[in-house]
Amino acid sequence: xxxxxxxxxxGRSFIKVxxxxxxxxxxxxxxxxxxxxxxxxxxxxVKPELKQLAETIKTLVKNSKIxxxxxxxxxxxxxxxxxxxxxxxxxxxxxxxAINFEADQYIPLPIKDVNxxxxxxxxxxxxxxxxxxxxxxxxxKRVIEKYLEVVKMxxxxxxxxxxxxxxxxxxxSNKNDPPSLIVxxxxxxxxxxxxxxxxVFFTRSIASGGAALTKAIMTEFNLASKQxxxxxxxxxxxxxxxxxxxxxxxxxxxxxxxxxILKAIDYARSHMGDQRLxxxxxxxxxxxxxxxxxxxxxxxSVEVSLGDPWANFAKEGLILxxxxxxxxYSIATGLALRT
Length: 339
Known about the structure:
The protein is an alpha/beta fold. The chain has three domains: about 5-80 and about 140-175 and about 310-335, Nucleotidyltransferase, domain 5; about 80-140, 2-Layer Sandwich (Dna Ligase, domain 1), CATH 3.30.1490; about 205-305, 2-Layer Sandwich (Nucleotidyltransferase, domain 5). Helices cover about 35% and strands about 30% of the residues. It is built from nine helices and 13 strands. Helix 5 (about 210-220) packs antiparallel against helix 7 (about 245-270). The longest helix is centred in the last third of the chain and has 27 residues, at about 245-270. It is globular, with a radius of gyration of 20 Å. The model has no long low-confidence stretch (mean pLDDT about 95).
């Protein structure tokens, strides 16, 4: 049965849309597309610029041949607060009554100003005296209202809003997988998402992404943005390309990210008991940087792979025309898979 919604990922550099068809355990790619985000995108507070963003979304959906008026969107991870907390083993009714009071201790915003959701990740064995693990996710209501406004101006209805980390967990893992660390490298930021049993366990947003790499090349070689971007994606951090000149510029910028990855790996080792981290999964537009996987492996001593949300999709139709491009659409695919 075809999903009645499509995934809408409004990134700071690109807007991406994905629609999938789900029939039992079979999944297939129905529609996909991307377009450059105009101006400041959702960071803008100016009505005409938000209207331009809405028009871009409307045109993209039409050009991508998506025939649905319902979408699910993700909010930028840095705009939300995600916390894993431990509580005494409460019943669902007791937790529902106590959650606002408990969340107030962990959310750095007035509870009345946020949309608060929670999910029980684990409960202790009866009589063990252990604690339950609860994931809190809070997003400012004003942020959600802006998404609602833009989607409405685009002519669509909003089915749900969730964090990027939730979308990535759905797209790149399942309940039976061993724990993994997803590293989503966008233009403006890099998101670290620790996944356990298909659930978000920990998140961290780093204010460094592909744009910082491009800027480093522009500054060092006095190049225009377009040419610097071409150099970045052609040579990456490969030492044997262009005498390693690009690599030497990019490595210090990437070490900011790998330092945080190492912290996340340490967190996983200290909070997951006897469950071991299976590896690091990189995704997003900047994940295609030549030599990146090898560099992260070198710095962390952990196996690194390129995430592909379409890996288990039926190899037919549209997906055959887009080999290797799934990673770029990881968030949008996760949104489209939401049921």
